[in-house]
Amino acid sequence: MPASLTALTGASDGAPSAGDVLIELGIVLLVLALLGRLAQRIGISSIPLYLLGGLALGEGGLIPISAGDDFIGVGAEIGVVLLLLLLGLEYSPEDLRDGLRSTWIAGIIDVVANAAPGFAAGLLLGWTPVASLLLAGITYISSSGIIARLLDDLDRIGNRETPIVLSLLVMEDVVTAFVLPAIAVLLVGATLAQGAIAIGVAFGVVFLAFYAAFRLSDRFSRAIHSRSRELLLLTVLGITFLVAGLADAVQVSAAVGAFLLGVTLSGQVADEVRSLLPPFRDVFGGLFFVFFGMQVDPRTLPPVLVPAIALALAGIASKVFTGYAAAAIAKIGRPGRWRAGFALVPRGEFSIVIAGLGVAAGAEPRLGALAAAYVLTLAVVGPVLMRVTDRRKARITRGARDE
Amino acid sequence: MEIFETKLPGVGVRYEFETEAGDRAGVVVRRDGTRDIVVYDRADADAAIGTLELSEGDASTVAELLGGTNITVRLEQLRHDVEGLAIEWVTMPEAGGLTEHTIADGKIRTRTSASVVAVVRGDHAVPGPGPSFEFLAGDHVLVMGDTEAVAEASRILTG
User: Fold this and answer.
1) What span, in angstroms and rounded, lies between the C-alpha atoms of A52 and A204?
2) pTM, two decimal places
3) In chain B, how many domains are there?
4) How near does any CA of chain B get to the CA of A397, in Å?
């Protein structure tokens, strides 16, 4: 198969022709489409399947693809930016503030309980502190995308523990917005003093951006609004890429720039962008997950399988503990505590974003494979566990009715 | 009845209350305007046993049904009482027509014999607006008169 594909696309040495790039891009998108359909059919998130698709397509996989690499890489970068822009759009500055105020104790439990296992595992595997920090981020952050959709699918939006789950997700996103720039700086390999200064600058920039989001949100959003969807899209995408690029240039990471911009956009602009952009995000986001998978050689997976599964088990336990404790603090009943705990288990897009940062910087050779295995496990197992707590609820309800 | 309000980051707002019969229920107002009616489990007070998803249109219909006395019912009654009376809601266009003009500018009364009896703008209503009242885009204007006059008035309003 690889040989025939090479013959088909004529990919030999030298720069790939436009035709090669299009053919390979077509193959990648069709694989995404097939995997997406499969995910829909069996009722799971498409993220793990996209990752598997990437593993199959990339280096050492079933169909090694190379000509479109650059293009897919750019597409993946756009995917990250759009993922984070839309995540930011989900929240208004007030949401962030209220979320931080109401759940900060639970937020601290969340950081400590979930980042610590990742960090410790990294050190145990003999990784550098920076690579271990990346792993801590990967085990810490839950998947807002998977969880929000499941809460809706399982009719839990009205549940009393749901605001706690949502606030914790907000909290995680904000914490990550502050930590990613710091990691980005450390990845460049600065000395401790340089690093400290750069981290200070990055923190300052993020803090200022949050402040600006509060202050200027309305005026800024009104200024860029347009009744024409075309003009609105061009304006918003233009500003997004510009902000993301500039953020990247000052080591704040493009993802964080896009997230903060999303938070800043509000009102009518936010509503319309929320309805216009998701298809773009899904296509480019799909490319991002595939691209990440492509960079991981499947042959490197078996050696990290044991640590990945151990981390996944720890990750389940630590999130269930976090959710249970957070719900208990908010005086939620016992079944609700378990539901909140299991709801936080799925990891997904943000873990891969963090891992992608490390892979791009060459922080640790095993990072990509470990992150892929970890997310693959929890993006599939997490939702299953959520449904299990749901069935338990159904049984309790029926029992109560029979009495 | 006491109503508790809880913000749902990224979703909207949830209002929760207990009925006199002791059932707990809630309404989730989502950012996109859809609303969920939630009924809580008696055994596990934190969990919803049922969720009714309502579009914006569904929600206002349900609100009218629950409201008992309301504008529409009363208008229907009026229409029934006066034969040949036409009552129409006209929504002001984004631009053109009488949008950003006053009632006096349109001379609706003189030209058509129909009357503008009320204007609903956003959450509040203006009953019997005066001649200097200025229409804005999106206003819902209640016009009353005979069928022909109302049709003519609605043409003037929307341009």
Assistant:
1) 38
2) 0.75
3) 2
4) 7
